[in-house]
Amino acid sequence: MTDRIFNFSAGPATLPEEVLRDAQEALWNLHGTGIGVMEHSHRGGAFTAVAQETEAACRALAGIPDDYAVLFLQGGASTQFFQLPAHWLAEDATADYLVTGSWSEKAAKEARRYGKVHEAATTRDQDFGVIPRQDQIHYSDAPTYVHLTSNNTIFGTQWVSEPEIPAEAWLACDASSDIFSRPIDLTRYGVLYAGAQKNLGPAGVTLVVVRRDLLDAPVRDLPTMLRYATHAEQGSLYNTPPSFGIYVMGRVLRWIQEQGGLAGMARANEEKAQVLYDALSELDFYACTAGEGSRSLMNITFRTPTPELDAAFVKEALAAQLSGLKGHRSVGGMRASIYNAFPKEGCEVLASFLRDFAARNG
Ligand SMILES: *Cc1c(COP(=O)(O)O)cnc(C)c1O
Known about the structure:
Elements: E1 6-7, H1 17-28, H2 45-62, E2 68-73, H3 76-88, E3 94-99, H4 102-111, E4 116-122, E5 145-149, E6 151-152, E7 157-158, E8 170-174, E9 191-195, E10 206-211, H5 228-233, H6 243-258, H7 261-282, E11 287-288, E12 299-303, H8 307-319, E13 322-323, E14 334-337, H9 344-361
Parallel strand pairs: 1-13, 3-4, 3-5, 5-8, 8-9
Antiparallel strand pairs: 2-10, 6-7, 9-10, 11-12, 12-14
This protein binds pyridoxal-5'-phosphate.
Residues 11, 76-78, 103, 149, 153, 174, 176-177, 195, 198 line the site of pyridoxal-5'-phosphate.
């Protein structure tokens, strides 16, 4: 790690070193073909093998059954905010949204273009510092689906497990910032989507997992590209896919598998977050902005006593080669994003910086 520094960016974010080294090689010459991965035809055997490998790695890692399609799309999670309701939310139907931060607000806003949206729960009046309890969730009579954001990247909160939902509804989840950071039971979901750039690879590819029985039923006439079935029928190769991103995602998924799979990843992520939460709670100087029981293992949000000290913290941390710690402008303070590939060593270095800064300014 000589010429690299610790990058706490919320996304795009740190990727595993060995994946980056492999990608450098593949950019130049993919598997001895004499052609780099970005230069291969997406119809040729070399690339279709890559796409199949990435899908297989995804299915193996998360135990995704055959009755789910695994798609590699473009447009980011933000495109899923409208593609999903355009596809499934009829004009006179209702979708229930669990609004736990800015990203879920954005998702709900797009859904309102297509049908009725019921906010089944929100913690807006608590500055999105907590996740609602089950008894605070009030569903509508017959929602088509229930949408949740599993990890709130900006506020630093995370659902510990999926809430119970009405029997006839299915769960739609924006898992952009915690996908494959812990074991997941996909059968609890109708649709799960994630932009790759936090936990899975480079920006430009969006992973979408869809229960196949939902594919036949778009509730309105949609352009070919917006129909999930188009991509499912063609193995995500209907048009030119984000080929480099799909390649790197496959390597990242394999890297996660080598770390002990999702269970191993969960253990490592818990240990990493613990290093920081321990330091923060031991020092009265800092306040966590997320409530106990709701705290994210991916994005750790905290403050010093004043905005001036927050600014000094970010500046001095950068001088100490700890980058990307400024909090989102809507929350202020600091945010340490420590996704799957972020090394534990970086958390330890930040923990000692936390102690040192508090000692000098407390
Ligand atoms: C980053 C993020 C998004 C936005 O993703 P894009 O791929 O930029 O559209 C959406 N939801 C969550 C939870 C995020 O963390």
